[in-house]
Design brief:
- Helices cover 87% and strands 0% of the residues.
- The chain has 100 residues and is mainly α.
- It has one domain.
């Protein structure tokens, strides 16, 4: 389980960054930060709870978070929100696909 502490550390760093940016930004940036933060939590929780998820599902969710983060840092907030929502959908599919 050495990967879990990496996820927690990465989430904490991103959370701190998103928080600082959201405090200093306009409302659309705050909304994008909130949605990204929520998506990141949901993906991390799904991957932690269901470690047996396929590599493809894991990579898809992580890729959407990466797209969201890139868009967010480039101030393309609508794109960041859309990618974060796709990541949330993938997290829900991970949880749904592994639920008996």
């Amino acid at each position: 389980m050495p990967l879990s502490w990496i996820w927690i550390t990465a989430a904490a760093v991103c959370l701190a960054t998103v928080t600082v940016v959201s405090i200093r930004s306009a409302s659309s940036a705050r909304h994008a930060a909130f949605i990204f933060q929520r998506a990141q939590y949901e993906v991390a929780e799904a991957l932690r709870t269901y470690p047996e998820v396929t590599a493809t599902a894991r990579q898809d969710a992580e890729a959407e978070l990466a797209v969201a983060w890139t868009a967010f840092t480039e101030r393309r907030y609508e794109e960041a929100i859309a990618a974060a929502k796709r990541a949330q959908h993938l997290a829900a599919r991970i949880a749904g696909a592994t639920t008996p």
